[in-house]
Write a structure and sequence with these properties.
alpha/beta, TIM Barrel, Lyase, Ornithine Decarboxylase, Chain A, domain 1, eight-stranded mixed β-sheet, 12 helices, binds pyridoxal-5'-phosphate
Length: about 350
Amino acid sequence: MSRPISVLVHIDAMRHNVALVRKAAGSRTLWAVVKANAYGHGLENAVSGFAEADGLAMLEASEARRARAAGWQKRLLMLEGFFDAADALELEALGAEPVIHSRWQIELLKSMPHSAFRVHVKINSGMNRLGFQPAESAQVISELRSIPGVEVLDAVTHFANAELPFENASAASVSTQLRQMQPIAEREELCMANSAAGLMQPAVAGNGLRAGIALYGISPSSDVSSHELGLKPAMTLSADIIALRSVARGGAVGYGSRWTAQKDSRIAVVACGYADGYPRSMPDGAPVWVEGQIAPIAGAVSMDMLTIDVTHIPQAQIGSRVELWGEHICVNDLARRCGTIGYELLCAVASRVPVSSN
Ligand SMILES: *Cc1c(COP(=O)(O)O)cnc(C)c1O
């Protein structure tokens, strides 16, 4: 038997989440964002779970190739465009639509022949990461339109604080960023919303919605639960108990002896460690789900194992399945405990963890 750890991806949950986000999208094009191996869920699973989306959004030509090979015939949006000439050539052949964010990409487009290359133009509306300034957008778009075989479909931008209130004190609130886009809205279609904006910012309109995290069933905001939004988590990470021991009061568990038994305790060793993607920074007390109950992490997470306190769960035995996150254990809650966001935990699941779907 192989090491008892696995990711189970729930295709039904993905379909449910697409239908829910579709309602929020209204008439907008719904792009399902599948970068980073579909946030750790496996690109092929996403192709099947997101079949009802209008397009897939991703980063790499290799992902676009994989999506086509898995049978995806609808649109493909390349969120960072192409990275070099060979990349551009392959994307055009695959019928993928790159986002053009920098001057060097325009020059590269000019240097190549095109039959039909549909592109999107990225505008920097306040995030100061990728994109052209609003003031140069008209010039950039007309320059792109003058390249034979290149068609500009819309202007895209990305929000820095979509999960915060519409108006807020940050330098780039949704309200400020929308104001930056206003002059462009008069000339072009706009594609702006991510999950948070799509679900929580009714003022953000446009012709497209690029949803990632919500389609995987995870709330884009730590202030609102997935359940409250009606989302169903699509990933369950679980591993088995492979050893059990008694630790007498005063005994310590694991590296650094971080956790010490306040009373005689029963400790279970679970076949999941930080080399599987479970954060080493997880503190004592973080929950796992075993035999229908919560058990707390007890001791530092090792590379290949972690330890939990099952003193109060006599049913926990060798071979008991432990949910690290999924339906009962919210990945956002875990992420908060170790100072990150659910996105990072999902994406960090290691390639040595087998992924299957149901
Ligand atoms: C990742 C990404 C998204 C999706 O964001 P979520 O918060 O996961 O919905 C949308 N747009 C761009 C440009 C992205 O990079």
